[in-house]
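User: I've been trying to design a sequence by hand for this structure and keep getting stuck. Would you show me what you'd pick, starting by listing the structure so we're on the same page?

Assistant: Good idea, let's start from the same input. This is the structure you sent:
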């Protein structure tokens, strides 16, 4: 009886250990991870939102200091960098920052003035603008999901809008 139990236990362990997962080669994707930040060191980043096939996602880029909503929107309007494009990110907005974009901030509020009719922006483009502005430095210290963003241009105004993406 003991021999049977021992045989069953060995068989069970063999089945569990050999679950059929084959070893694979290294699959390279995107930029390699960089070093760990020193505890207490300021880790400044610009949080930018770009389109992907499934919607809009945020990505972070290293920065030399705090990034204002204005700086972040202008950076986002330049489009994704090479590494971000490799990951499938793109912009749905279609204008460059030098096209006459104006970003102003006050406590808990951001206004983005664009050189086009903002009512014609896609939902994706609106989300890119609103979330990029809200996730960066805005006076008043509110969390990103309470920052109010207004979009205006072409005689139209949208908002106040809030970002719905972490």
């Amino acid at each position: 009886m003991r021999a049977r139990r021992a045989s069953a236990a060995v068989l069970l362990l063999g089945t569990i250990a050999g679950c059929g997962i084959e070893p694979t080669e290294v699959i390279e994707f995107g930029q390699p991870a960089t070093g760990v930040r020193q505890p207490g060191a300021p880790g400044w980043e610009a949080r930018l939102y770009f389109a992907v096939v499934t919607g809009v996602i945020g990505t972070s880029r290293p920065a030399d200091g705090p990034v204002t909503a204005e700086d972040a929107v202008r950076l986002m309007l330049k489009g994704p960098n090479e590494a971000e494009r490799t990951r499938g990110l793109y912009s749905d907005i279609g204008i460059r920052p030098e096209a006459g974009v104006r970003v102003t901030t006050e406590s808990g509020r951001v206004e983005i003035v664009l050189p086009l009719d903002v009512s014609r922006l896609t939902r994706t483009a609106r989300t890119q603008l609103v979330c990029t502005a809200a996730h960066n430095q805005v006076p008043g210290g509110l969390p990103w999901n309470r920052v109010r963003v207004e979009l205006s241009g072409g005689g139209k105004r949208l908002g106040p809008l809030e970002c719905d993406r972490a």
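That's my pick for every position. To get oriented when you compare it with your attempt: The helical segments are 2-17, 69-77, 82-86, 123-134. The first strand starts at residue 45 and ends at 52.
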